[in-house]
Structure prediction request, 184 residues.
Amino acid sequence: MDTNLTNSENRIYDISMHRMSRTPSYNQMVIDDNGFRKMLEAQGMSQSSIDRAMRGLHHYIGILGEISNEMRPEKMRDITSTHSYNIIPSNAKAGVCTDLVIALASSSGHPKRRFINVIRELRAHLIQCMHSTQTVFILTDVWDPVKFRESEADLKSHMRRGLKIIPGLVTKNCLIPLDIPFEP
Prediction:
């Protein structure tokens, strides 16, 4: 895959047209560990924090592969709470704030899982958990830097206080890190 297409400033890269099936196969997902680790290191995270974030990311992708779409919202909340990270979107009305948030946005399916709605829920979560959240992974199957514009000021504010935000593009069977489409 040409990562220049995904990292360009104003380029929309919708990988849904390249997928074999309608939804990605998470049970065989390959995560670009090295790429994610380099991005977290570049943001000044300690090795122990990077290891924790990567364990959470691997755990989340692993359970996505094991749980059917119908069961996801309820089961995910129960499973991820025992591993101490928050997920978005979530049906939880209130929960415990953790240092790690993993947001999953889709280009299709229920409106709650669409990119803009997931980012809005993430922004609300970051306000509620401002003093706890340290790292956010935003995983999506469509990369559209323009969709970040609505949330840019809020996300920049959180990033200036030290929040690490790493977007990830879900392709056929890979998860690759991307640069956030603006400077903090």
